[in-house]
Amino acid sequence: MIEFINNMDTLRNELYNNSRDIIKLLEERREIAGKIGECKVAGGLKIRNREREIEILKSLSYDHFTEFVLNLLFEFSINYEVLNRNSADSVKYSRILNGVKYIEYRSERDNLIFLLSRILNPGTVVLCDYHEISKILISAGHHIANAIEKPDLVIYMDGRENQEIIIKDGSMLISENFLASKANIYTVEIQ
Ligand SMILES: O=C(O)C(=O)C[C@]1(C(=O)O)C=C[C@@H](O)C=C1
Question: Which residue ranges does the record assign to the Chorismate mutase domain (predicted)?
């Protein structure tokens, strides 16, 4: 028994060191992505570059797990690049959601989806038929509903009935219906 416990302690130490190294590398990666983001802003380029992502996926991913991890890394970079750009841009648009009946925000699609992930309270259950949005919402700590769950929020990318949030043509529309269910929304100031 003692031997098992010693063995587990050793493994835990190894795992701890491994986690520490991963975190350090992730921080480094995020810094580099931030610098790429600055170049993109300077060059007027879009933050997401799916061709580059596919290039990386093709050369580095060899199974579902590595593909999943790489996709998460891309989302982390994008969140960071967008954050950087927003603070660099200073306040362009500012509005308090609380008490507003309807809101429309216009921006690049990635930026909108990122903003949406921040508007929702952590852990919101979302029914969403769009993979890119789902990925960003999951990385921001939200859940994607499956058929049995009752979602807090329904997002569709195009005009369907009962939509609560529409993201279309560089514009995000948050409906009155959704704003009425304030339980799911932070009072946020949008930049
Ligand atoms: O290479 C870029 O353009 C980046 O911004 C970096 C990165 C990445 O994390 O690897 C992030 C977002 C892009 O969609 C593609 C790749």
Answer: 2-85
